[in-house]
Amino acid sequence: MAGFFVLALAAVLIWLFAESKMTRIVGFGILGTIAVLAAGYLFWRESQNSVQRPPSEMAKPQTPPDAKTVEESFTVLSPADVALPRVSLQSGVETYSGIDGKQYERPDLRSWTLLGDVKNLSKTHRVRDVILNVRLYSCPSYYGTPVNEVKYEDLSLICSKIGERSLGLYDLKLDPGAAKSFTQDFRFLNQGNALNWRYWVEVTRVVAQI
After folding, report:
1. In this structure, are residues 165 and 113 in contact, taking their beta carbons and an 8 Å threshold?
2. What's the rounded Cα separation, in Å, for the pair 196 and 8?
3. Dihedral sign of CA atoms 156, 84, 81, 66 in order
4. What is the pLDDT of residue 114?
5. Hey, what CATH class is 67-209 in?
6. CA quadruple 187, 189, 195, 200: dihedral sign
7. Which residues are 87's β-sheet partners?
8. Residue 125 CB partners (closer than 8 Å, separation 6+)
9. DSSP 100
10. What is the residue extent of each domain of the chain?
11. DSSP structure class, residue 37
12. Which residues pair with 12 in a beta bridge?
């Protein structure tokens, strides 16, 4: 229907411009009226879009922090300002088929999950990011110290390091004294054979929320 109207209007305008000088004046008047109506419609539509635009689109961009503030966020806190009151490393689980055709599960010593709590010990600053260093060790068969009771000195002297990985806990937004749980799945790069394995986790960097 709209297409038929456009064709009819075009035919009338062609006739007006071709008929005489008087009809050409009428044709120009019709074109001017159409242009005014089109401009008015476009202005109305733009005003409606401006009114209905979400506040997020109209918000002004935030000013990026200055270099001094960024530097302070990396230096004002140290690893001693964060505690890991409960942390553990768990191996993954893989499924395999037994000789009887049934499905069984066994530890997957190439896939790991680090989980626990991270606590902000600072009394003055919020914690944004925490970087952890995780080390995996393979120990002799006689080493029977439970996983949660190992000492770093024993691991360094008795066991062999077979994997090391940095993990980041980002955008924590931890207030002074607050704690938050975390879980991270990962793999060690170029990991050795995990026999009688143990692990060690330590905080290497803390970034403040400035």
Report:
1. no
2. 89
3. positive
4. 98
5. mainly beta
6. negative
7. 116
8. 76, 77, 81, 176, 208, 209, 210
9. T
10. 2-58, 67-209
11. H
12. none
Residue 74 and residue 205: Cα distance in Å, rounded? Answer: 8
- pTM higher than 0.90: no
Give residue 42's identity as a one-letter amino acid code.
L
The pLDDT of residue 151 is 94
And the tokens for 106?
């066994």
pLDDT averaged over 10-residue windows placed end to end, the chain, 210 residues: 52 54 60 65 64 54 74 92 95 88 90 98 97 98 93 94 97 97 96 96 95
Determine how many CB atoms are found less than 10 A away from the CB of residue 140. 11
DSSP 80: G
H or E stretch including 108?
A: strand 103-120
> Which of the 8 DSSP states describes residue 185?
E
Cα separation, 19 vs 99, in Å, equals: 97
* Cβ–Cβ under 8 Å, residues 139 and 192: no
CA dihedral (200, 188, 161, 167) positive or negative: negative
Positive or negative CA dihedral for 118, 121, 122, 123?
Answer: positive
The two beta strands, 126-138 and 103-120, are: unpaired
Task: Tell me the two tokens of residue 19.
Answer: 């008929």
Give CA–CA dist 112/135, Å, rounded: 12
